Amino acid sequence: MNLYLPFKLFLILLFFFISLIGNAQNKTPKDSISTDLNEVVVSQNKKTFTNTNGNIKVDVASSIYNAIPNTIDLLSKLPTVQVSSDRESISVVGRGNPLIYIDNQKVGMNDLNALAVADIKTIEIIQNPSSKYEAEGRSVILITRKFSKKDSFRTEISEVASFRKKYSNSLGLNTSFKKNKLEWKANFSYNDLQPWENHSIDYQIPNAEITSKYDVTAYSKKSQFIFGGSLFYKINEDDSFSFSVNSKLQKDVFPINTITDNKNKEVENNVLTYSDNDSKKNFVNSFLNYTKKIQAIDTEVFTGFQYSNFDQGLWSQVQNNYNNTQFELAQFRDQKFKVNVFSGKIDVEKKFKNEMKFEIGGLYAAADSKSDSDIFDYEKSKSELSHYDFKEQNLAGYSQLSGKIKKVDFSVGFRVENTNVDGKFKTDLAPLINKNYTIFFPKAQFSVALDSTKNISLNYAKSISRPSYSSLNQGTTYINPYFLYARNINLDPTIVNEISSTFQYHDKSVKLTYYQNINPVYNSFFFDKELNIMTFKDVNFDKESAFVLDFELPFTYKFWTMTNSLVFVSEKIEDASAVFLSSKPYTYFYSNNEFKIPKGYTAVLGFRAVTKQNKGVFERNARAIVDMAVSKIFFKNWNCSLYFNNVFKKINEEEVFTINNISSKARYLVDEHEIAISIKYSFGKVKETEYKGKSMEENSNRLN
After folding, report:
1. pLDDT 10s digits, 528-548
2. What is the DSSP string of 5-58?
């Protein structure tokens, strides 16, 4: 894709916005004087984006972003944050998959789907998390919810109408109440969604003399019920108690149509594949926290427990039509997956008078999953039953010392984690997967203030990235008679070593990072000659390394606030089974432009782009997106917003690679061209935040 045209059109739109608003500003009366001064209101225009040492903080509650219909779409519009085409994972440019926290409690994608945007106060992208955070992840997305200090009541009712290829609708209710020491919050939403997606893969297997290409399209009808509630009780000045629960219940019906052209030596087949699919995904997550302050020794103790459950089922009936004859039943597939996670955690924080702080804590987590598969093959009149059980236990402890010595701020610490994994099919006498390992994770950060406007920092961290529990089950997806998507029960975690340095001047920063990953996870092909079936699944590659240069460049001029991220990445992915193509630097650019228009309007023009990516094994195409939005509050209680997302329509994501002597070119199309109207009515009032949460769950982000 040529980035020149979208970028040129973006600059034209930007110039148009500036000219239009500048003219409107000049027409605004400046010298009018009121002779009756009954009330003086002092207001401060809060910045939507702030930058501290490369950490970006977004004020969601006071910006146009609070009207976006769901949290995943909100995150996709933030600097350096990228959402996968299937909306099942989030990554940060140059830093991989982040840890995700809500009120300092570790969560996953399902929790984000269950979180109402109206409930969010701020979102912070933390680039160098300390040892206090789990070892899993090189960055943290910290979401802080809105809570109240004073007695209050507030309710918001929202409606979002979305127009893509098909119409979707979201209706939400968010309410909060505080009286004396007790505060509770509740949210409920119903989403009626109709997403569309398309992808194709063209591959060749020279050793088997096979050439094949398929094109698959899916229309979904999703019904989602999302609800959550939380309670905070301040027992006294030193003790507090909190409980929260959130859930998402999803029903999904999605027929899939696939067109396949397959040539095996001299035999050619054109196959039309149609599958009826009925899916459910139910998720629930609950927290119980208690905080105790011991004033005599200036120490705070936190204890917490969490229970999470994810229950997924997929029913499919597949038919094939060979060479325009007639459809015949091929397979009936009934697959179930369920995982339960329980964890308990304790944190102790001791402050000293010389600005030192010592922290120590521990965590225990246990996960238990079951994966059942029942596949009936109509052609062979044969049924295959399989039951796979997985158990994992994690025991972790950490210690950290932070403070300031003269002009140097420092934080040094370490974390030790022991993991015990067992996985077996019910027909196995002994476990197929049996792992027990202990890893030491040191972290250190030093920051020196050169003067009141400049500082420089140096960071080192070792971390781990574990596969999600869902990726460790035996589930498969039937695409056509020759191709399957599969999970991989044999995935190992990825170990990451990283060093970085950041220079900050006022609100602008530049950061240089080098990292190396051992056992990174990427897609791979496996061909079964006997069955004549290709399987596409995640595997561990040998290694990955990269240099990343990140510029964060915000600017403000009168009515115009611009937030820019410019990231240069030189990345190399290597594996013995893959052909090394080339490794060349690529560029990611993000620009968010917010305009304060007279009469209370706010307009936003956004641009995101990435140049062609040559990552060693993989080559991916250049892409660009332009978004527009305008918002206004009417009659104090009505917030109306209009969004134009992906103005220039479809995004084509293309990927080329050769693995296990199989050459592939893939293309993914996502229905992101959208016009959305959001209307929100609110009454009551909520002021500053009282609530303070804590991290307690090591593994809820793996419930995907």
Report:
1. 988 899 999 999 999 999 999
2. HHHHHHHHHHHHHHHHHHHHHHTS--S---S------------SEEEETTEEEE
